[in-house]
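Q: what does this look like with L4RZE5RM bound?
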Amino acid sequence: MFDVTRYATAAQSIVGAGQFLYGRGWSPATSSNYSARIDSDHVAITVSGRHKGQLTAADVMVVDLDGRPVQSQCKSSAETLLHTVLYRVFPEVGAVLHTHSVKATVLSRLIAAGQALELEGYELQKAFSGVETHEGALSIPVFDNTQDIPALAEDTRAWFLDHPEQPGYLIRGHGLYTWGKTMADCLRHVEAFEFLFECELETMRVRP
Ligand SMILES: CSCCC(=O)C(=O)COP(=O)(O)O
Ligand SMILES: [Zn+2]
């Protein structure tokens, strides 16, 4: 059982996130999925296939941390396990956002297999929770795209148990996953990533 008021608050934060992210062009054509924690065992998450710029509370459902629907006949996001694994690894996380921007998609295809996206020397790194200086390096892993979501969820679980300080990851040719204590933190992380992706792509353009 979950608290209905907490569910309604989580659903509203997801609807608002969709309006913002779709408006920025980062969640086109029904892509992306969003979630917000309700309590230690339940997460509100987008129903699969919904238009993220036109979400209402009816497009948000509840799953448990194994990704099973709770009091819903809907099908949750095809990538539900990529969300629930993060809520298990990081008990303090309150929101997870997955986006499909052009820059995340293109940049992820330019990173060689087995390499991470290294972000270093940018003042905007401080937009990530817990980062106090531009002098550190962020190492954003790029996982190969796959339709085997349980296997990808397990890969991300293993990687982030070892690297809990990293704020997100890319899936090659697919998109970005990031998270935060609150939905506001998580939205700030998406924005920061998008700025940094643009900087990296622009650097490659002027200095190939
Ligand atoms: C049209 S995008 C293909 C699926 C995807 O990658 C995505 O993010 C949306 O899937 P969902 O099941 O969450 O709607
Ligand atoms: Zn996706």
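Residues 31, 79, 98, 100, 174-175 surround zinc ion (ligand 2) (CB under 6 Å). The longest strand covers residues 137-143.
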